[in-house]
Amino acid sequence: MKQLLPLLCALALLCGCAAPPPEPEDGRLQIVAAVFPAYDFARAAAGAHGDVTLLLPPGAESHSYEPTPADILRVRNCDLFIYLGGESDAWVDTILSAIEPQGECLRMVDCVDLLEEETVEGMTGGHEDHDHSEEAHGHPGEVLGMDEHVWTSPKNAAVITRLLGETLANLDPDHAGDYRTAAEDYARELDALDGEFTAFFNGLPHKTMVFGDRFPLRYFAETYDLDYYAAFPGCGAQTEPSAATVAFLTEKVRDEDLPAVWYIEFSNHLVADSIAEAAGTSTALFHTCHNVSQADLDAGATYLSLMEGNLETLRAVMG
């Protein structure tokens, strides 16, 4: 963690010596979410009984985010703090070790069964300390740790939403039924979306996707039994793939006659563009829902709407 964060924690502690902010007069729960998926699931479950704040600014990169003193105070004073619990929001652990939250904390990685993040054939590197070997690309099947991107499977998203409904019901028993109903309503929409993805992929003769980008979609791929290849792991710090990786992915696209090379949101997609150009195909965006742009947030984007957009793109590209 960068040197600024301990200073921010110290500032938060100094501010914490003052009287805590007054409770909202309307009695709504104060919920703080570190990342967009947690924010979206929480606002769906909370409905009219909770105010949900998103810490990660729209368009920001979670791995390099530095919280402000105001963010730290929000975490300290809220009724429920929801965060991922992985490498991409490691700054949260630094905050929680320096302050004593007054409310409950929920880690998304504790809500579902975890999978291991691993390199696949052709992938460049691993975590920041993994790419110092003489070879420029990772070894197939090498385990890099537990994969934190649990929300990318709609099945997991539904599980997390239902658990949030129960958590809010326990925090505010007077409105317990409302939380459970709202969470269940959204979870059922996610279940329906899962069914649509399942039907789509079951109808394909070949289910291979190549990403000229990071690949934070292990849970999505596992849920729908996809074969995938990518330039980097989900939490890889690299931005330049090895020549061997580019050559391998290009040949994979050619050999399997794939209709597109995929990239993820907020990527410059230069690697995907390069592979697609060499292979004579096009590129396409797959939104991981890790974060959204300000325009998307203002337009009311949800996890559900973004994933429905992914399904539409998949149908257009692969269907």
Walk me through what this model shows.
This protein has 319 residues and is α/β, with parallel strands linked by helices. The chain has two domains: 4-112, 3-Layer(aba) Sandwich (Rossmann fold), CATH 3.40.50.1980; 116-148 and 201-318, 3-Layer(aba) Sandwich (Rossmann fold). It is built from eleven helices and ten strands. Mean pLDDT is 88; it is low at 18-22 and 127-139.
Question: Short description, anyone?
Answer:
This protein has helices at 4-16, 36-46, 69-77, 90-98, 154-171, 176-202, 218-223, 243-255, 270-279, 294-298, 303-318; strands spanning 29-33, 50-54, 80-83, 104-107, 116-118, 143-146, 208-215, 227-233, 260-264, 282-286. By secondary structure, it is α/β, with parallel strands linked by helices. It has 2 domains: 4-112, 3-Layer(aba) Sandwich (Rossmann fold), CATH 3.40.50; 116-148 and 201-318, Rossmann fold (3-Layer(aba) Sandwich), CATH 3.40.50.
What key attributes describe this structure?
single chain; 319 residues; alpha/beta; Rossmann fold; two-stranded antiparallel sheet; 11 helices
